[in-house]
């Protein structure tokens, strides 16, 4: 009788509760060797390749592309080949996870004891790997496959190319222009193999003229050149990716539940935990920018003012442990900068902001945003900040109650700039002002400390340069 081993999804990060299948790198029924790449999984922090823990035949996959698998739940079953190398059972690999003891969000146990994982449309897929109906396919994060359909909202936002995050990362690493790669996946999805072939042939080098191709669907699928490829580009005149369809064009069936994936899933958890743990209080005021000289960078000035306030009132540049009632004041200033994306909210850390000049701060902001947008940012750079900044006013809104994410103590929100009439000696003047909202954890800081902190921000923003 064949020796069957079940592989349970390991923790792919720092206590991450689940991960989403991006792409199986081995077909069901195929033979795989120990430590060969088995499957690409997307967490809230990165796309990682999970190696095979055994040598043998991949007997069963517990979930398809786009499915959410709970950490500790069954991911795959292997028929062990005793003739191939195997890892000793006593050797620690990080792969040996017991099945989840209790059902969590997105996973539950059926009446027959089989593990059930969440499907794209908020339903469920049994351990047998049954696929949902094609007509019910929902929206997923990125251009990941959902049963036999592909949804490319994020892919469109990065140039109109349907490709999962792992493929985009590989293309960037190999210097391949995805707009010039002929896709072979369903509905015109660029696969990893497509990128590798393009890199080997040198036919899609970055910087060359684009020759896009699209693949038709059905049994007689054939690759044809896009008729407008010679004149149409996915980039704006400024070199930035443009949307070729509205964000809601691939939003799935309206009124139907949509399973949250990746960053949006984590964002929902983080916001709920923050709301439950923080005693949030907000204070608002306006900074008068009338004295500003031409050439001031708004984001850089905000970061500089935040640093100045942290030095004046260190109580808000701190971490607070509510369970043990301990507070840690930081001598350095690492600012968590909220970055809005189609996938959800990312907060990369601008390290040692107190040591950077204006040029250094601008370079740090540009680098962080670029790495967030192409999902190349290291997981370690999405945590560990000592205070937070949200410049929501670049879109709309004057005041807000931004959410403080523990262990941080405070977050500063900057609203939309506008003009107000200010009385002066002999008449009135129109001054440009910036609305500011400071939310802080009242367990760790007093109202007086928060008010003095906001005053320090306002004073620094009032300077000409």
TrEMBL record:
Its cofactor is (R)-lipoate. Belongs to the 2-oxoacid dehydrogenase family. Residues 87-133 are annotated as: Disordered. Keywords: Acyltransferase, Lipoyl, Transferase. This is Dihydrolipoamide acetyltransferase component of pyruvate dehydrogenase complex. It comes from Metallibacterium scheffleri. Residues 162-199 form the Peripheral subunit-binding (PSBD) domain. SUPFAM superfamilies: CoA-dependent acyltransferases (SSF52777), Peripheral subunit-binding domain of 2-oxo acid dehydrogenase complex (SSF47005), Single hybrid motif (SSF51230). Its EC number is 2.3.1.-. Residues 4-79 form the Lipoyl-binding domain. The lineage of its organism: Bacteria, Pseudomonadati, Pseudomonadota, Gammaproteobacteria, Lysobacterales. GO terms for molecular function: acetyltransferase activity; lipoic acid binding. Forms a 24-polypeptide structural core with octahedral symmetry. The keyword Coiled coil does not apply. The keyword Acetylation does not apply. GO terms for cellular component: cytoplasm. It comes from the Bacteria.
């Amino acid at each position: 009788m064949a020796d069957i081993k079940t592989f349970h999804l390991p923790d792919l990060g720092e206590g991450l509760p689940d991960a989403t299948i991006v792409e199986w790198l081995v077909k069901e029924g195929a033979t795989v060797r120990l430590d060969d790449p088995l499957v690409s999984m997307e967490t809230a922090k990165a796309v990682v390749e999970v190696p095979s823990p055994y040598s043998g035949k991949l007997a069963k996959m517990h979930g398809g592309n786009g499915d959410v698998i709970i950490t500790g739940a069954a991911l795959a079953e292997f028929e062990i080949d005793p003739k191939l190398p195997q890892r000793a059972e006593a050797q620690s690999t990080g792969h040996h996870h017991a099945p989840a003891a209790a059902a969590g969000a997105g996973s539950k146990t059926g009446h027959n004891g089989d593990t059930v994982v969440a499907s794209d449309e908020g339903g469920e897929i049994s351990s047998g790997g049954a696929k949902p109906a094609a007509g019910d396919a929902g929206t997923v994060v990125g251009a990941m496959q959902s049963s036999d359909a592909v949804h490319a909202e994020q892919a469109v936002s990065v140039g109109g190319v349907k490709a999962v995050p792992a493929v985009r990362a590989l293309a960037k690493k190999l210097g391949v222009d995805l707009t010039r790669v002929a896709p072979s996946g369903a509905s015109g999805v660029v696969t990893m193999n497509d990128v590798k072939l393009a890199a080997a042939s040198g036919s899609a080098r970055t910087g060359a003229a684009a020759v896009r191709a699209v693949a038709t669907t059905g049994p007689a699928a054939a690759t044809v050149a896009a008729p407008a490829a010679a004149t149409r580009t996915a980039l704006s005149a400024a070199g930035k990716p443009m949307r070729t369809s509205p964000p809601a064009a691939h939003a799935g069936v309206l009124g139907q539940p949509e399973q949250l994936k990746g960053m949006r899933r984590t964002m929902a958890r983080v916001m709920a935990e923050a709301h439950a743990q923080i005693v949030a209080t907000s204070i608002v005021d306006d900074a008068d920018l009338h004295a500003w000289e031409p050439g001031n960078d708004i984001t850089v000035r905000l970061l500089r003012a935040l640093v100045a306030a942290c030095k004046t009132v260190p109580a808000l540049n701190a971490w607070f442990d509510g369970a043990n009632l301990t507070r840690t004041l930081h001598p350095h200033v690492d600012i968590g900068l909220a970055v809005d994306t189609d996938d959800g909210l990312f907060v990369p850390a601008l390290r040692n902001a107190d040591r950077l000049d204006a040029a250094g701060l601008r370079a740090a902001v540009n680098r962080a945003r670029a790495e967030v947008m192409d999902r190349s940012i290291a997981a370690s750079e999405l945590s560990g900040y000592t205070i937070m900044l949200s410049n929501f006013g670049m879109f709309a809104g004057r005041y807000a109650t931004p959410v403080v994410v523990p262990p941080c103590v405070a977050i500063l929100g900057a609203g939309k700039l506008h003009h107000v009439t200010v009385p002066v000696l002999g008449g009135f003047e129109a001054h440009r002002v910036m609305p500011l909202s400071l939310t802080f954890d009242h367990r760790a800081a007093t109202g007086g400390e928060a008010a003095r902190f906001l005053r320090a921000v306002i004073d620094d923003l009032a300077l000409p340069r």
